[in-house]
Each structure stands twice: as structure tokens, then as C-alpha cells.
Specification:
- The chain is mostly helical.
- The chain has one domain (1-61).
- The chain is built from one helix and no strands.
- InterPro entries: ATPase_inhibitor_mt (IPR007648).
- It is found in: Mitochondrion.
Length: 61
């Protein structure tokens, strides 16, 4: 009985560690993708500004 209880406790702890590691990894992935999204949004804004500048020059020509 004691050995079975120890084994169950070991499995519970291992499972908890694995779940924590998975959560930490997924949190890092989310942070990474949010950073990439912000970079892409900034690039979109730069490109839209450039398009507006080009269209403005074309209108006056």
C-alpha cells in the first residue's frame, strides 16, 4: 500500500511538473506571437503611410 501511494504521488508530481512546463512553454509562445503581431501591425502602418504619401504625390502631379 505504501509503495502504491508513493508511486501515485510520484506520478501526480510528475504530471504537475509536465503541465507546468507545458503552460510555461505555451505562455512563451503566446508572448512571442503577440510580439510578432505588434511588429507586423507597425509594418502595416508604415506601408499604409507610404501608400498615402505616394497617392498624395500622384494626385498633385
Amino acid at each position: 500500500k505504501i509503495e502504491a501511494a508513493r508511486e501515485e504521488e510520484f506520478i501526480r508530481r510528475l504530471n504537475a511538473q509536465q503541465l507546468k512546463a507545458l503552460k510555461d512553454h505555451l505562455d512563451q509562445e503566446v508572448d512571442h506571437h503577440e510580439k510578432i503581431i505588434k511588429e507586423h501591425q507597425a509594418a502595416i502602418q508604415r506601408h499604409k503611410k507610404k501608400i498615402s504619401e505616394i497617392e498624395g504625390k500622384t494626385d498633385t502631379d
